[in-house]
UniProtKB/TrEMBL annotation:
Stored Pfam families: Methyltransf_4
GO cellular component, one term: tRNA methyltransferase complex
Enzyme nomenclature, EC number: 2.1.1.33
Protein name: tRNA (guanine-N(7)-)-methyltransferase
Organism: Marinobacter maroccanus
Gene Ontology MF term list: tRNA (guanine(46)-N7)-methyltransferase activity
Its biological purpose: Catalyzes the formation of N(7)-methylguanine at position 46 (m7G46) in tRNA.
Name of the gene: trmB
Binding site for substrate: 153, 185, 222-225
Region spans: Disordered: 1-24
Gene3D superfamilies for the chain: Vaccinia Virus protein VP39 (3.40.50.150)
List of residues binding S-adenosyl-L-methionine: 74, 99, 126, 149
Pathway this chain belongs to: tRNA modification; N(7)-methylguanine-tRNA biosynthesis
Amino acid sequence: MTDHKEPQNSPDTAAESPVTTRRGVRSFVLRQGRMTEGQKKAFERSWPKYGLTREDGMIDPREVFGRDNMLNLEIGFGMGRSLAEMAEAAPEQDFIGVEVHQPGVGALLKEIEERGLENVRIYSIDANDVIDLCLPDACLDRVMVFFPDPWHKKKHHKRRLIQHEFVQRVRHKLRVGGILHLATDWENYAEHMLEVMNESEGFANTQESGGYSPRPEDRPITKFEKRGETLGHGVWDLLFYRTN
């Protein structure tokens, strides 16, 4: 697969910055969706203010947000509506969203503008690069990965984002006591996630019973999730906290 370029100054001009610097198996495939006019205009207006890049290097969240508040990271925010809802409902918290698909970035920037949000920043690169190159250790209070690609064929399971190595790298970015919140509507992936987390050093389940968690009230229900529920599909939440 060739490297796809990451637009920075406008949605149509590619900068000399690949979407990922990591080699090997990827957990995502870049779909060639185009931004709507509204998304493109929101990108042009607001990316300079809300966008973060790999070239910024290791950030100081207090400088980025101008305050020292609870800091959340959402990996793979899709079209951004849930992230915008969470940020609007918790103005006293700060949120960093990561998404490689440009229409989703444009859609979230549009939501940010319409809701007048000041507590959101966005990376449009591989989450692995954000974790390894952009975030200092122990800076995050919560990491959220909601409905990642389940890669449901067995031969593709190695592409799943939630693996031991990834979880350990996330752990170092969480403060002790910080939460890793995973959610999926794919039962086989839920079982895989639970197995990975149970075996992950430095994490403990928030549920004393050791199983899945009820959906926390602050995780918005997506349209996709509502549709799934009406079709009888399950949704599984896992909340683990960093112990050391």
